[in-house]
Design a protein that fits this description.
Rossmann fold, ANL_N_sf, AMP-dep_synth/lig_dom, AMP-dependent synthetase/ligase domain-containing protein, 6 strands, alpha/beta
Length: about 180
């Protein structure tokens, strides 16, 4: 019957053998019902996400971001960098990098278009991706930005370059008159 739903797909992580991704028509285990509403509404001190540091001090550690921190950051970033419905924000960093959170949440909050390019394209020719996407905003590390051999005139749509996550070389600042 083509109208019947497909059988549930189970992925058994960490098990050995040939049962990875097997189709199983047995009923799922019974779990107690839960509801997001039962958690109550978010409050400023509620955790919204966690990131892990790079471990540059010796050991990586988890850092919890609360709603109040995210809201304050998103508001400040959006206002300072003039995000809006006509903004095109190139998501140039990995989801695991905390700089990414600012671009994602600020784009959502200010109605901007979040441009997600293939990772391969970002790694091989970021300048071309910026041009093709007509990005108005981008957030990168100074090291990645300094690899591009472009001048401000090459990227007429780019209104905001946010660099962070590491020390800023003076040459990067001087080259772009920042």
């Amino acid at each position: 019957d083509s109208s019947a739903p497909p059988p549930p797909f189970l992925e058994e992580r960490g098990s050995k053998g040939s049962n990875h991704g097997r189709s199983d028509t047995s009923p799922p285990p019974v779990c107690p019902p839960t509801s997001v509403c039962s958690l109550g509404p978010p409050v400023p001190s509620t955790a919204v996400y966690a990131v892990y540091t790079s471990g540059s001090t010796g050991r990586p550690k988890g850092v919890v971001c609360e709603h109040r921190h995210l809201v304050s950051f998103v508001h400040a970033k959006g206002e300072d960098e003039k995000f809006g419905p006509k903004s095109r924000v190139l998501l140039a960093s990995s989801f695991t990098f905390d700089l990414c959170q600012g671009d994602v949440f600020t784009s959502l909050a200010f109605g901007a278009c979040l441009v997600v390019a293939p990772r391969e394209a970002l790694l091989h020719d970021l300048g071309a991706v910026l041009k093709r996407s007509r990005a108005s905003h981008v957030t990168l590390t100074p090291a990645v930005w300094s690899l591009m051999r472009l001048q401000p005139a090459d990227l007429p749509f780019l209104r905001s370059i946010s660099l962070g996550g590491e020390a800023m070389p003076v040459g990067v600042v001087q080259a772009w008159g920042m």
